[in-house]
Write a structure and sequence with these properties.
With 606 residues, the protein is mainly β. It has 5 helices and 35 strands. 6% of the residues lie in helices and 59% in strands. The longest helix has 18 residues, at 2-19.
Length: 606
């Protein structure tokens, strides 16, 4: 019955799109070059499932942070603990929180300690130009952690001199303040951002204090541009029931995550070479009882230092992409011990084109050496055929895997025990899809299948036993993704309607355990739609509807809305989240907040 309701709702939206008048181009998606690959291709030319959150989407999203923003794409499962994305896990197509890779301008910011820290490096939305979401196995392109997909955050470049002051106040004593500046000089450009976000918490011990610092500079831009990026995020927050049982009400955590990257792009005839150096650091301090700092306490410091060179060469035979990525990880921890790991990955792929360039075939392989897990290889292939200027059918197949985190291997507490004998998780995945692209309308549908083995879970035979990490599960995951976006006008004003739906079916094979800590709880049905409209000068509004049904049977619907009014250099905004006070949880029995409001005022100097 629930599935029938969803199908009916999709049909109604499709009909509504069909009756829209005077289509116009909101944004030329096919002109966007997808940068998260060695072979750079326009959005419409890729033979993979890729979705792009544009700057216009961000403006209309009624979201104040990346975690909330990504929740508006079906198939992307953001499981939040608390508000404002203070602690959130990233899943794609039913994978685990360490099976999706996050990148910042192409720099891999995965965390070897635990995937729970992946989203620590999610940047303030004020500095984001767009977000590229790659669904499906991406290990051939990115290597480790891109088990079920990857998310690449592309940051802004300064194109004009400006200074923006932004302040927000709202429910739960929320107070946000931000300063963002851009300077465009003769031979350099710079973007700088500082922000502080605080809240008293929507329930006991869910307060937070978050500070963000960001700078992106381009030097020597008239010859060989050198790009410099530095970001720092500090988060201090109460973690009532976040990680243990709901009765653990006094947990507390402080994280400090930083990233420094230097890169350039060299173009010479048929060559494109993109070298980069980067350093990511994460520090995590956890207290079981924030009122007893001398009690149970964990402190982990992880450093990842890497160098990567990607290149492509265009010849009569097509485009060849290749690269090498070398990274060293250092971990210092009072619980996990002192650890280090050297990782070296070689990438090679080539795109062939046939039948007047209508058919593209891109085989490739990535080979990685780990100092503690030896060699692993993941081959794959993409195929695409242009049925017309607007229609493209595509398919891909790939092998993918994930090595255990240090938490999986070595973590111990009074209830949990790691396992140093764990094997990597492995999977083979396939998909076939169809894309349609026009100036005012884009749509896609993809069918996918993934056979995974040696998935890591924490299990036990008896209730009094310790949870222990074990390679226990073989899972078949299959499903469908549907996306559509339409832009049209009513009167003199632009409107847009966006809808996406994902269905996932997980079949767990031969799971012979009595207790499972991380039982699969995918979003079986996930539907999101957003209508952004404008009917009066300087006034625009958006409404977002999200429906979720998990494998466990839990269902919930959440509605968000926003209102923006522009007057000269001022922008006034109202954001309303969960306006119908839905009671629901996304993970670990942590209740999400009921309806709340945020009022904003922005002033822009030019």
């Amino acid at each position: 019955m629930k599935s029938t309701k969803l199908i009916t709702l999709l049909s109604i939206l499709t009909t509504a799109i069909g009756f829209a008048q005077d289509p116009v181009a909101e944004e030329q998606l096919d002109e966007i070059i997808v940068t998260s690959s060695r072979i750079e291709l326009p959005f419409s030319k890729n033979s993979r499932s890729i979705n792009i959150i544009t700057s216009e989407d961000i403006q209309a999203s009624a979201a104040t942070n990346v975690a909330d923003l990504l929740q508006q794409v079906a198939g992307v499962d953001i499981r939040r603990r608390g508000t404002a994305g203070m602690q959130a896990d990233l899943y794609i197509r039913g994978g685990s929180f360490d099976q999706t890779l996050l990148l910042i301008d192409g720099i891999k910011v995965d965390d070897a300690q635990t995937g729970h820290h992946t989203m620590n490096m999610a940047l303030p939305i004020e500095v984001i130009e767009r977000i590229e979401i790659i669904s499906g196995p991406a290990a051939r392109v990115f290597g480790q952690n891109a088990f079920t997909g990857a998310v690449n955050i592309v940051t802004k470049k300064s194109t004009e001199n400006l200074l923006t002051l932004d302040t927000q106040v709202g429910s739960f004593n929320t107070l946000n303040a931000a300063v963002t500046g851009g300077v465009n000089l003769d031979n350099s450009s710079h973007v700088v951002h500082m922000s502080k976000n605080t809240s008293g918490g929507y329930r006991h011990n869910t307060d937070y204090d978050n500070q963000n610092y960001f700078i992106k500079s381009t030097f020597n831009k008239n010859k060989l541009p050198i790009n410099f990026l530095a970001a720092l995020s500090e988060r201090d927050f109460g973690a009532n029931g976040f990680y243990s049982t709901p009765s653990a009400t006094e947990q507390y955590e402080e994280t400090q995550t930083s990233l420094i990257g230097i890169s350039t792009k060299i173009k010479n005839n048929d060559w494109i070479i993109k070298p980069q150096l980067y350093w990511r650091r994460n520090q995590d301090m956890y207290l079981y009882d924030r009122n007893n700092p001398t009690g149970y306490r964990n402190l982990h410091i992880t450093n990842k230092i890497g160098a990567e060179v990607n290149a492509s060469y265009t010849s009569n035979l097509g485009i060849t992409g290749f690269g090498v990525d070398v990274a060293q990880v250092f971990l210092a921890s009072n619980n996990l011990g002192d650890r280090d790991r050297l990782m070296t990955t070689l990438f090679l792929e080539h795109q062939f084109k046939f039948f007047n360039d209508k058919l593209d075939v891109t085989p490739g392989i990535a080979v990685t050496y780990y100092s503690d897990f030896k060699f692993h290889a993941f081959p794959g292939m993409d195929l695409g055929y242009e049925l017309s200027d607007n229609f493209k059918i595509y398919g891909n197949v790939g092998y993918t895997y994930r090595i255990p985190t240090y938490t999986d291997l070595y973590y111990s507490d009074p209830t949990t025990l790691g396992n140093p004998d764990l094997d990597p998780e492995e999977a083979i995945a396939e998909e076939i899809g169809l894309k349609f692209n026009k100036a005012n309308f884009t749509a896609s549908v993809a069918f996918f299948n993934r056979d995974s083995r040696d998935l890591i879970d924490y299990v036990k035979d008896n209730e009094e036993d310790l949870w222990q990490a074990t390679n226990i599960a073989e899972v078949n995951t299959k499903g469908i993704d549907v996306y559509a976006n339409y832009g049209f006008t009513i009167g003199a004003y632009m409107q847009s309607l966006n809808a996406s739906y994902t269905y996932i079916d997980d079949e767990v094979k031969d799971l012979d355990v009595n207790y499972s800590k991380y039982a699969i709880n995918s979003l079986k049905h996930h539907f999101v739609t957003r209508f952004t409209s404008q009917f009066f000068q300087n006034l625009s509004q958006s409404i977002i509807y999200k429906y979720a049904e998990r494998t466990s049977g839990e269902t919930y619907s959440v509605v968000d809305a926003s209102l923006n009014y522009n007057f000269k250099a001022f922008e006034f905004s109202v954001i309303a989240n969960n306006i119908f006070n839905t009671e629901y949880t996304e993970t670990n029995l942590v209740p999400m907040p009921k309806g709340n409001l945020i009022f904003g005022l922005k002033y822009m100097f030019k």
